[in-house]
Write a structure and sequence with these properties.
Blueprint: E1 3-8, H1 12-22, E2 31-36, H2 44-49, H3 51-54, E3 60-64, H4 70-80, E4 85-88, E5 93-95, H5 99-110, E6 117-121, E7 133-136, H6 137-144, H7 158-168, E8 172-182, H8 194-199, H9 202-232
Parallel strand pairs: 1-2, 1-4, 2-3, 6-8
Antiparallel strand pairs: 4-7, 5-8, 6-7
Length: 233
Amino acid sequence: MISILLPSTGREKRLHELLTIMEPALPDKGEIIVILDQADIVDRETYDALGWLLTGHLRTRFIIATVRGCWRCKNVALRYALHDLIMWTADDVKPHQGWLEKGMECFRLSFPNGLGLVALNDLHGMEKTAGHVITTRKFLTVLFGYPYFPPKFRHYFLDTLVSDRSKSLNRYHFCTDAVMEHMHWRLGKSERDATNERNEGLEERNSDKSIKEAMDNEWLAGDRQKALRRLRN
């Protein structure tokens, strides 16, 4: 049983192709929750035009969000998720064969009590970050004191923060064989699109960077010890 959190905006065709790969890999009670950015559903006509996508994937739930930013959208997905075991990913990936089965096996073997984080292999950032992850809400509570993502983040740096904190607690495992290839335009694997242009603003990057730096300082000043106590309890 796993809930996969997948924010998406402005990439209906790519999302359809991705879900066509992901849905057959789900275990019996697994689910995918796609959060569509409210800004892209501006009127009923636009919503109706998405009907082929919204009704064509029976193992995916589509949620229309009223927030902007991938991490805030993932928090929306968490409110709807049925399971404690979660995965988060993005709409610009290419899952390789066995991606979920291998990732879940890595998690089961590495953290049988559910308190840890398994990063899937994106063939780029590798073990430096946590952009495509299997973990639990219980472990998010260990990391932050609550079972969701810090709400101030929008698009950047929280994946690095999660990775850094998990490693600091010795609760990080990089699953080499579970591949979710990142098809980012900067890697020459896709064309730069309107979604990239919207999400890659300097103001947003600087804001998220400042939030991460402040939380890094809080981690060193006492939040790590609090997390260790939550981990033991």
